[in-house]
Amino acid sequence: MCRDPRDHNLVVLETGAFGVVGHDWHARLDKVFIENLGKFRKYDGKSVQDLLRALRNKVRLFRALHLSIQNPSCTAWTLQKHHYQDLPDHVKRTLGPMPEGFLSYFTKRFPRLFMHVHGVISDTYLHTESMFRAYFELNES
């Protein structure tokens, strides 16, 4: 039974998902992270959206990046921690320290992820949305 049609932007996000996340992104992550992740909700290992949701649910990564760009003196990572501080110590050691270790952990496993997301945003109307506009408009001073 089909509910409402999927949002066009989500369809675009999932286009080429195999090239971004492979057969199952769970297989690219350490077992300790997957076990902790699965305690709270189920994620589709073939879905870019679900991988991004998993990232978001561990740390408000994109919001923190946005705040740090707006105010470089702000310790956005400290202000925007979400579930990272609640992770068991052995999972934190696996992921690495915030923000460098966490970002490195995921970019090594999914080197195309962030460019894929950037492409989706830039190729759709999303680049005009207030939360993304600063990343796509040149500020000529």
UniProtKB/TrEMBL annotation:
Transmembrane segments: none annotated. One of its GO terms (cellular component) is IRE1-TRAF2-ASK1 complex. SMART domains: PUG. Residues 1-138 form the KEN domain. GO terms for molecular function: ATP binding; protein serine/threonine kinase activity; RNA endonuclease activity; unfolded protein binding. Keywords: ATP-binding, Nucleotide-binding, Signal. InterPro entries: IRE1/2-like (IPR045133), KEN_dom (IPR010513), KEN_sf (IPR038357). GO terms for biological process: intrinsic apoptotic signaling pathway in response to endoplasmic reticulum stress; IRE1-mediated unfolded protein response; mRNA processing. This is Ribonuclease 2-5A-domain-containing protein. It comes from Boletus reticuloceps.
